[in-house]
Design brief:
With 103 residues, the chain is an alpha+beta fold. It is built from 2 helices and 6 strands, in the order ββααββββ. It has helices spanning 38-67, 70-73; strands at residues 4-15, 18-26, 74-75, 79-83, 91-95, 100-101. The strands form 3 sheets. A two-stranded antiparallel sheet has the order 1-2. Residues 83-103 are annotated as: Disordered.
Amino acid sequence: MLFKLVRRLPMFYYIRGQHYDSYLFVYYVNGGRTPCSPLEIVTSFVVDFRAFLKMLVGKIWRKEEKSIPRWSRCKESTTLLTSQNNNSNNKRIIAGEDSRCHV
């Protein structure tokens, strides 16, 4: 059956007051070679490294966003400019209902 004896382990089992030996066998699949080709190993490393870099860049960007003062992140989405008189330069700003802080 192509199993190879690696080691005999004397008195390994103790069953009903009696010691028995154990035998360790091995069966090599694919001739004992790794099932992965060197190209598959390199590809796997590159994919994992790219995922690590994306995670690292994401954390750095989030840290930068947290350092921005809150007031600079708040924006009004709509405002209405109305003039009191058509010829006057006095203008008043009326905030729309959608003014909120986008965090």
